[in-house]
């Protein structure tokens, strides 16, 4: 439990820096720490992949998000909504 709590705090730290990490704007020790954390934390890895995908879409489509990325976002949002309505 304590370990989980510790991880959570680390996750917040990582998430705060993930954009800079993907932009390669971090100094090497910090980037290495984040890479380390992504290796062992599925949640952050997922977030990082997600951000990377959006970034990649933005770069390759010259500003517009690729349709399949939007679809994914939409599906993700729908699944969240469905989850909260499942009780009724
Ligand atoms: Zn994490």
Task: Walk me through what this model shows.
It is built from four helices and no strands. The chain has 88 residues and is mainly alpha-helical. It has a domain at 10-64. It starts with a helix and ends with a helix. It is flat. It binds zinc ion (ZN). Residues 7, 10-11, 14, 37, 41, 43-44 line the site of zinc ion. Zinc ion (ZN) binds at residues 7, 10-11, 14, 37, 41, 43-44.
Structure described in brief:
By secondary structure, this protein is mainly α. Helices cover 82% and strands 0% of the residues.
Helix content estimate: over 70%
- Beta-strand percent range: under 5%
Please tally the helical runs, counting DSSP H or I stretches of 4 or more residues: 4
- Computed over alpha carbons, the radius of gyration is 16 Å
SSE topology sketch:
Layout: H1 2-22, H2 28-40, H3 42-60, H4 67-85
Helix pairs in contact: 1-3, 2-3
Defining traits:
mainly alpha; 4 helices; binds zinc ion
């Amino acid at each position: 439990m304590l370990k989980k709590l510790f991880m959570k705090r680390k996750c917040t730290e990582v998430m705060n820096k993930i954009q800079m990490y993907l932009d390669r704007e971090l100094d090497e020790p910090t980037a290495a720490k984040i890479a380390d954390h992504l290796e062992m934390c599925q949640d952050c890895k997922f977030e990082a992949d997600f951000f990377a995908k959006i970034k990649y879409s933005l770069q390759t489509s010259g500003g517009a998000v690729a349709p399949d990325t939007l679809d994914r976002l939409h599906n993700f949002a729908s699944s969240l909504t469905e989850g909260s309505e499942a009780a009724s």
